[in-house]
Specification:
two-stranded antiparallel sheet, about 35% helix, 4 strands
């Protein structure tokens, strides 16, 4: 667009009767307030929380940074759960993840998304030992600030939504490596019958083409414990 033919401000033109390229503002137009402009540039979403950390912050630093006293947290800040319970938060995270993250990370989180398959650098799988053992605040920080080839989403995804995405990533990790001790009888029976049942009732990713088996032993780093669906 910067190279296309255009008229500069205050330039003359024969396109309009007054010969001016700059057009008068429509009637009843008002200047947008600074707060309105900031909410748009911050990627404010339906959850209504700006991504921009205000100058005067409350004591809940973990909400903005994912850290307390410089250390990454491993839990969702209480401020996030004031609007949504955990089930709703994960559902919201699934929706936002599928929109903003799955093109590169795919819907299972193995790093085999369509963007990577078409030439972009493959992101790491969420299911490596290293990423499964990192605290929740790490996922939030990467979503906020970017990492390596991944850009920052701090200006396009709200703070609450980035926490929701981080929690959904943790849910994906659990879905691949659920310890047997943390499954109830219903889940174990479903696994033995070849089905999958989650206590959180999170739908399986669409068109994933895989069904998952319970890992009785710790898998090797970088591996995905799955089998091809019939």
């Amino acid at each position: 667009m910067s190279n296309q033919r255009r008229l500069e401000s205050q330039e003359q033109t024969e396109a309009f009767a007054d010969g001016m390229a700059s057009r008068p503002l429509p009637l009843h137009t008002i200047t947008a307030s600074e707060s309105a402009t900031a909410s748009v540039s911050a990627g404010q979403t339906a959850m209504g929380v700006s991504s921009i950390r205000p100058a005067q912050v409350d004591n809940d630093d973990s909400y903005w940074d994912g850290k307390v006293d410089g250390e990454l947290v491993d839990s969702v800040p209480k401020r996030v759960l004031e609007q949504l319970d955990m089930r709703q938060l994960i559902k919201r995270g699934q929706q936002r993840f599928n929109i903003s993250c799955s093109p590169c990370h795919d819907r299972v989180g193995s790093g085999n998304g369509m963007v990577a398959r078409r030439g972009f650098k493959y992101p790491p799988s969420y299911h490596t030992d290293r990423l499964r053992q990192l605290p929740l605040g790490y996922v939030f920080n990467v979503a906020t600030n970017g990492h390596g080839e991944m850009p920052s989403y701090g200006d396009s995804i709200s703070t609450d939504d980035r926490w929701a995405i981080a929690m959904y990533v943790r849910t994906l990790q659990f879905s691949q490596y659920a310890p047997k001790s943390e499954l109830d009888e219903t889940d174990l029976e479903a696994l033995q019958k070849g089905g999958v049942s989650f206590q959180l009732q999170i739908p399986e990713p669409q068109n994933s083409g895989v069904s998952f088996q319970l890992a009785n032993e710790e898998p090797q780093a970088g591996s995905l414990r799955h089998k091809e669906a019939p």
